[in-house]
Design brief:
With 210 residues, the protein is mostly helical. It is built from 8 helices and no strands. α1 packs antiparallel against α8, α2 runs antiparallel to α3 and α2 runs parallel beside α8. The two termini are 16 Å apart. About 4% of the residues have low confidence.
């Protein structure tokens, strides 16, 4: 029985990780078609991509009332990021010239959020209100990183809006541009479908993983 449980665990874990990879890949392809800037792609995909398996598994653990899995997942992943990933990167190549801004602001914010986590968990309970507070902190930090220009970048990154305006002035277009537009639309539909499939695979896998 234990062997069967381990087999299911590793298979569902592999499905979760792979479906998360597919999710990120197809989101990136959609972003490229919509001509969204590399900075926004990097910020959002790195943030989501590295945390998506943890997010899905934590949501599943919360649904099944497994608080120990949630806390172990969050604390363990952060310790691994600093104790393993940062350490291995430093062993391979020294990390020189760390910007003073990163040390003073992002470094202190990291310490502050960690201290806030300890404070919120000191009563051995994290409420919905405290969860909302943490989400608000994340949103404020994201806006700070993007320098409050996210909406401007997204608006300017969608060429289809400009194409609609141009169509009113220019009725005829080359066959090549029409073909490309149709191809982009078909690709968007295909990538959106694959995103839905990958999300379904994550939901399916995390249920058996937990």
């Amino acid at each position: 029985m234990m062997i069967a449980d381990l087999l299911v665990f590793f298979i569902t874990l592999a499905i979760l990780i792979k479906s998360s990879d597919y999710f990120i890949d197809y989101v990136k392809k959609i972003a490229e078609i919509l001509n969204i800037s590399d900075f926004i792609i990097g910020f959002t995909l790195v943030a989501v991509g590295t945390s998506l398996p943890e997010l899905v598994s934590s949501i599943g653990a919360s649904y099944y009332k497994s608080s120990g899995l949630i806390m172990g997942n969050i604390v363990g992943s952060n310790i691994a990021n600093i104790g393993i990933i940062l350490a291995v990167a430093a062993l391979i190549s020294i990390i020189p010239n760390i910007k003073k801004r990163i040390f003073n602001k992002e470094g202190l914010l990291l310490v502050g959020v960690s201290a806030l986590f300890l404070l919120l968990a000191s009563d051995r309970n994290i409420s919905r209100t405290e969860g909302i507070v943490l989400i608000i902190i994340f949103i404020i930090y994201s806006a700070y990183i993007l320098e409050l220009s996210l909406f401007k970048k997204l608006y300017s990154a969608i060429p289809f809006m400009l194409d609609i305006v141009k169509n009113t002035k220019q009725k005829q277009k080359s066959k090549k541009s029409i073909t490309l537009n149709k191809e982009n639309v078909m690709n968007l539909i295909k990538y959106a479908f694959m995103i839905i499939v990958s999300c379904a695979a994550m939901v399916f896998s995390v249920e058996y993983l937990i």
